[in-house]
Amino acid sequence: MSGSRKPLIAGNWKMNLNHLEAIALVQKIAFALPAKYFEKVDVTVIPPFTDIRSVQTVVDGDKLLLTYGAQDLSAHDSGAYTGEISGAFLAKLGCTFVVVGHSERRTMHAETDEVVLAKTKAALKHGLTPIVCIGEGLDIRESGEHVAYNVAQLKGSLAGLSAEDIAKVVIAYEPVWAIGTGRVASAADAQEVCAAVRTTLAEIADASTAASVRVLYGGSVNAKNVGDIVGQTDVDGALVGGASLKADEFSTLSAIAAGGPLP
Ligand SMILES: O=C(CO)COP(=O)(O)O
């Protein structure tokens, strides 16, 4: 973490919690994190689409400082795309962030870098901040090619974007072998790839853009390991899966990313 970048803790709920459960969780997190924390950390929740309207109502009604976003969006604005959700709809619901190219979508929905790029452009077009995910599988990690692999995925996912647009994205490095496995990358592993991400951003945009973009780590992050991870120079927060479904754990790890004290 560097002083010039405010840490971001994003809770990716994946396909968990219905809209009533979503309201309860958001209220608990907000209660545990009074306003002073938000001076030092941005906290966002990323629920399923069907929860977003309810989350918006709580956040607006109670004037909460946490933000919310979506787990995916369509590359298209509107039309005959059954089952897809437009960035325009998400913007209208007050979403701040949208996750793009999560490894679960790259793997289970065959999303290529080209698709991720198109979705990143759609997010930017609608004023949403894309959280663009990259990350290698275990085979790549074991072959020692992980830095080159992530750099290539990053370049492919941002190909042709202007420095001005790149300045508006968040990057999340999530090694696939560390997702939902309890096998967290070491803080040094996270730093190695996040530093390579920043070097690449300087190459495809410029140095000041690279210095301003937030690069998150994701993969089995919890209250016990978050301190070490966000303590790394080039890691500016975390994309949290399982631990974001528990109010106490998520509030605690957000407070740790803020530099304390514990809630
Ligand atoms: O995929 C993730 C967040 O997007 C990480 O999930 P876990 O924190 O459950 O490993």
From TrEMBL:
Chemical reaction(s) catalysed: D-glyceraldehyde 3-phosphate = dihydroxyacetone phosphate
The domain of life is Bacteria
Q: A single Gene Ontology molecular function, please? A: triose-phosphate isomerase activity
The reply to whether Ubl conjugation figures as a keyword in the UniProt entry is no
A GO cellular component entry from the record: cytosol
**One Pfam entry name:** TIM
UniProt keyword terms in alphabetical order: Cytoplasm, Gluconeogenesis, Glycolysis, Isomerase
Subcellular location, record wording: Cytoplasm
Pathways per UniProt: Carbohydrate biosynthesis; gluconeogenesis; Carbohydrate degradation; glycolysis; D-glyceraldehyde 3-phosphate from glycerone phosphate: step 1/1
Biological process per Gene Ontology, one example term:
glyceraldehyde-3-phosphate biosynthetic process
Main subcellular localisation: cytoplasm
Question: Where is substrate annotated to bind?
Answer: N12, W13, K14, G180, S220, G241, G242
InterPro entries registered for this protein in UniProt? Aldolase_TIM, TIM_sf, TrioseP_Isoase_bac/euk, Triosephosphate_isomerase, Triosephosphate_isomerase_AS
Keyword presence, Cytoplasm: yes
EC class (word): isomerase
- The record places the active site at H102, E174
Q: How does it assemble?
A: Homodimer.
Q: Which family does it belong to?
A: Belongs to the triosephosphate isomerase family.
Per its UniProt record, what NCBIfam families does this chain match?
Answer: tim
The protein's role, per its UniProt record: Involved in the gluconeogenesis. Catalyzes stereospecifically the conversion of dihydroxyacetone phosphate (DHAP) to D-glyceraldehyde-3-phosphate (G3P).
What this protein is called in its record is Triosephosphate isomerase
Which organism was this protein described from?
Gordonia polyisoprenivorans
Instruction: Give the gene name.
Output: tpiA
